[in-house]
Amino acid sequence: MTAGRATHDAKHAARQLLDLGADAAGRRNARERVAAVKAKLVPLARQGDAQAQTLLGAIELELEGNPRGAHPWFEMAAAQNDPAGQRGLGHLYATGLGVPADRDRAVELFTQAAAAGDAYAMYNLASANIQAEGQYLSFDATVTHLRAAANRGIPAAWARLGDLFSADDQDAEALECYVKAAEAGHTGAMNAAACWYRDGTAGQVDLVQATRWFLTMLRYGNGDGIHEIFQFASRMSPEQIRQAARLAGDPAAAESFISVLEGRGPRADT
């Protein structure tokens, strides 16, 4: 095997472990796998490979639960302007994990990584600015970063953007963002969208869409919306309930609700 191939394989194995995240710890021989991957990455990192340094930092932080061990690796990678390394180091300073909390330093690092196109850094930068009540970025710049992160595949960015627009009384824009986050699988945004449609917060009440998103939450393991549906389902026609269930990807659920409303079955939330 060539050195280049070995390097590629070591990094690929590390990314696979990180993709498993917390699940990796519960897998058989997980610790042995982590140790083996680290053993391959350490020589590369010591030779100055920034990606290997960042991967080691991520493994220490996310799999080993050792932020102090992650810090020097992220520091080395950030010194080489590796965006993921800058973002990882920024996360440590933002949260005070393994280092004294330093929001200014975190924002500096997130800014550098965001400028290089790192989507999670864009999200983290905007989030840090929101927490700091606009100390670092203008409203428009915060929106720009969140929208860019969202368009790069981070559902939480759509949800955070919805919150930002909501706080600014831009209700139509907020609902649009909540729906986009919901469509991407963000359960908090599903709940927000459902409540807004139920209450008509951004305009007219739409009980079909409200039911749709409360039902979709159930598909993601969150049953909180079932009780909510029963609070207003009596105002819906059977066909509206069926339409909502189809939109939620669970047509069979409609018949259960209709059966209960017609007094032919027990409520699922009792």
TrEMBL record:
This is Sel1 repeat family protein. Signal peptide: none annotated. It holds the Pfam family Sel1. PANTHER family: ERAD-ASSOCIATED E3 UBIQUITIN-PROTEIN LIGASE COMPONENT HRD3 (PTHR11102:SF160), SEL-1-LIKE PROTEIN (PTHR11102). Gene3D superfamilies: Tetratricopeptide repeat domain. Coiled coil: none annotated.
